[in-house]
Structure of Inositol 2-dehydrogenase:
Amino acid sequence: MTVKIGLIGLGMIGRDHLKRFNDIITGAKVTAVCDINHAAADAIASEYNATAFYDAEAMINSDQVDAVFICSIGPAHKAQILAAFNAGKPVFCEKPLTPTADESREIIDAEVKAGKRLLQLGFMRRFDPGYQALKQVIDSGELGDIMLIHCAHRNPSVPESYTLEMAINDSATHEIDIVRYLLNENIISVRVDKPRKKTRRALPHLQDPLIVIFETESGVRVDDELFVNCHYGYDIRCEVIGENAIAALNEQQLIATRSLKGHAQHIAQSCMERFTTAYDREVQHFIDNIHSGKEMSGPSSWDGYVVALVCDAGLASLKDGEKHDVLIPQRPAVYR
Amino acid sequence: MTVKIGLIGLGMIGRDHLKRFNDIITGAKVTAVCDINHAAADAIASEYNATAFYDAEAMINSDQVDAVFICSIGPAHKAQILAAFNAGKPVFCEKPLTPTADESREIIDAEVKAGKRLLQLGFMRRFDPGYQALKQVIDSGELGDIMLIHCAHRNPSVPESYTLEMAINDSATHEIDIVRYLLNENIISVRVDKPRKKTRRALPHLQDPLIVIFETESGVRVDDELFVNCHYGYDIRCEVIGENAIAALNEQQLIATRSLKGHAQHIAQSCMERFTTAYDREVQHFIDNIHSGKEMSGPSSWDGYVVALVCDAGLASLKDGEKHDVLIPQRPAVYR
Amino acid sequence: MTVKIGLIGLGMIGRDHLKRFNDIITGAKVTAVCDINHAAADAIASEYNATAFYDAEAMINSDQVDAVFICSIGPAHKAQILAAFNAGKPVFCEKPLTPTADESREIIDAEVKAGKRLLQLGFMRRFDPGYQALKQVIDSGELGDIMLIHCAHRNPSVPESYTLEMAINDSATHEIDIVRYLLNENIISVRVDKPRKKTRRALPHLQDPLIVIFETESGVRVDDELFVNCHYGYDIRCEVIGENAIAALNEQQLIATRSLKGHAQHIAQSCMERFTTAYDREVQHFIDNIHSGKEMSGPSSWDGYVVALVCDAGLASLKDGEKHDVLIPQRPAVYR
Amino acid sequence: MTVKIGLIGLGMIGRDHLKRFNDIITGAKVTAVCDINHAAADAIASEYNATAFYDAEAMINSDQVDAVFICSIGPAHKAQILAAFNAGKPVFCEKPLTPTADESREIIDAEVKAGKRLLQLGFMRRFDPGYQALKQVIDSGELGDIMLIHCAHRNPSVPESYTLEMAINDSATHEIDIVRYLLNENIISVRVDKPRKKTRRALPHLQDPLIVIFETESGVRVDDELFVNCHYGYDIRCEVIGENAIAALNEQQLIATRSLKGHAQHIAQSCMERFTTAYDREVQHFIDNIHSGKEMSGPSSWDGYVVALVCDAGLASLKDGEKHDVLIPQRPAVYR
């Protein structure tokens, strides 16, 4: 059986996933694509031998589609997700789940009502071999109790459309999710530090770099350097400090060169390059789950909701520089 | 469609592949297992819900089997491969293709007669992300013309059954194949150096370590340290020296720790651990090729035959310490 | 000419310097040692063929002594330094200059009155090849403007005598000084963050780890992880983030091993081991300055005074968790 | 006391040492310089406030000189060394001791007759912190018995004056000496392998790279890649393989950068840069020995003689490609 995928949203990440389905993923085929830009939908449908849709709901309900793959902009997510739930079709949704925590809550409610998970969220880092190795060494107990985590999230540059808030909403979300994954616990407070010294490479409306400090339930202190115009690469760092020992993401390359550059290892230049294996694996995981008939697994709507709650606190702190608490409701049983 | 796999030979590597089909591989299922040890065949067939066979030919010709996966001992390979060819079923065969080059030649002749490739050989290193990155940087021209390659092939230890000749036939085969892959050219001579100093960890019938020196068609000099009782790990090294720069396999871990051991990265302890991704990928490649209806690709019978010719020269040099030339016939068109 | 050294204080660091004078330093000899513990003074004087003193002032004024080397406890420093100034003898003083900034001010005043520097302070990190390489790359402009510095100061453990305040007064002092050295600017505020999660290896009166956040005049944000019971080693980290690139202290070993520990580099186990070259160099620098007849150079009383001012703010923040400003007077011309 | 140095030979290495005496070395001063090029001698004497000599013997016998520092060309060494011995002045001599083993023998005989060592030879690598750390881990027994050593000796390029033989006589000499130092045993045979593939960066009269294979008394096999037009840096590698574990020279930098070059560590670009600490230390060692009134220590005439014997065998192998044995006479007692 080949899972027939309907893919919504033909922007950068949408096209990247389309290529992935074509080249890498086994057991699935994109049979329908949807974009409000008719020309884009037509062109890509033709290129990939799929049917073009301009209306998401029509595509979702089409019998050409077994599963829905959402790469549209955040504000469109909620309606598309709920439509897919209604159509009884499994959903993969790129992050963020929804722009606000309140909207995410509606999706949670729908899954709770269904009594099972219906969606996999695109927090791809959980499928990254580096982070998985980090989690493995934490879980092994080799490090002892964890006390501190130092993170850095560096982009070579960001487009003009990148707003001040996106440092929290778009960039820090990944660390928020991955810290919860690594430690199996929630974040309970956020504080944003704005260093006075800013890079002149950033557009004037930005504050770059930023330091965000999280505290988890058990008291672990996490600092996250968000530096989205770092110039030199897409560079994700994570160092976990335990009572016995420390573990950290290392360089992510398997070869090194000796040249006029010195003894060097390449640093990724984009999210797509750094997390290519993670993207491949998260999508294959979604497809394999469908094949096996199992309930959705991996990052959930609940993860998306909780991350949105933490972001809300972060945005408040971005304004006033104070520490803001995060109140997280009881986790429903379907997300055990 | 799920490809029905008949797997022959339930030794260590056979069982490893069986687990792999069960846990990792998509699009295939082991439906039949075969071993001359009836008890082993029965027990494993029962565990994996497959049919037990004790006779390879019977299993190969059974309609429970779409494709044949050969993990038996080397001397059994030729007959099983030819039987599968006759049955029109695609073959995956663990290396060596056959114990001698002459036997391999018969398989070549059968594929030439068929006018297409029918077999994928288990030189898994070609699917290793590290070696692939090394090949990519060589092919990019960044290193300039290649002049030297330094390899090391280190095992923590070997069983009592490991013979002196296996350093060539079993261990060096991997470097022989991968050098051909990296450089796109053949090896034309072999010399084996036997250092006077041997590890006391090796059994008395062995000469460990050994240094094997290959020369390729274009004149590249390759040295390969074979050290199969190195005690500390399964450690595969490869450094490629070009006119402009050097590239080398780096540590293969994505995390590092700071502990009482110092700043450390784990070294794999077995072939299975070091090349787990490569094994997964080579098998998935085989299955994907079947699904797509394409001709077999990846390492071929021809590769197995040529490696066997190089090994013959290596074994001669192991005896007399002299340089031995390798005569490689014209490559048939099916292996272009 | 051999400089005759009178060394005061025969504790751990005093004995370490004594051994250094004996084994490494050229152009100087310890001719007199002084300790209020008569037995210790006698024993060591006998071992090193020096004269024993029990009274610092007597030794300072003895004509057996050309220069004074102070390794006594902090509260004793001021009187000994001023006595040496009066005797017209150059002084090397271990840090801290004095326990409080006010006392340090008296020493500053004495040097200002003398119109020249008379003392070298024991901030040995400025002589460390690693930090010097870091300063060189910062000064080269290769990193661009600096915006952030991430430090870690980790000890395997601390003795029972180590107090909560010493995390600031004793440990963080080194980062306070070195940040000023690296950036050529002062620190203007301090905030101490106390993570809720503490290591169980620390004695109950400690808060370990701590995070101290400094801001410099130009707005650089520096965070310093102080973790003095980290168990695994004496590990000093420093990462400097600029607009163009990042530079960091690397592992400080020149060899690496492959063993059952993996691919590993040793981490120092003590301050003495980590900074052995720095200690050797700072002392040789002091002696060479005397030989050359030049004014004292290297870390000064002023550096000691300013670090004491920053520590005062840090201690205040350790109590209330708030950010505290540091007011630094105009630097006198002798410390240009 | 300041040792008055008479330095002979104002070429590249001579001037480098002159600068070293001026900037780094304590306890010595170059009071006389000698070169057959009168203009060079006059200019440099004037610059460094020393007396110019054009005749080595005159300078050696001048009472302006306490110790003789020989940086002249190899063929001049023997006469200058013997003159200094006659004058009763300690000698530092740059390598090679003499161009041929026979000439070296005369120097040995003179020292044997004197009943003590009178000379320190310029094998500076023995003073390199990296090699010293390597020796320390070998001597600790941590690696177990040593069986193999892999070396590489890479220069970015060589001048037109560099001959084919200098790969042995000038470059390999360093590995010959350091292997003896690391293992405390002699080399008993040499074989030179000439790879067919050569770098096009080398001048036509060279064979670059070359592989030289040494065997030591106990049977350790050492291979040395000599690649003197490697383009990218002055890069010295050494990996020591023991029964239990492996140790190797690591990158020799204490900082690393993250930039558009990737994660990189600088590689030295010249011998002077790579071994600057070693040069400083070997010269200070020579001066300190004079100050202490001790017999000369460090690399000896005997080391120079034995290395010359190994080179003779290497040059023979360079011609015929065969393995050549090295016959080493009994070591006289003065070189115990």
Observations:
- Chain C has a mean pLDDT of 97.
- The two ends of chain C are 30 Å apart (CA to CA).
- The first strand of chain C starts at residue 3 and ends at 8.
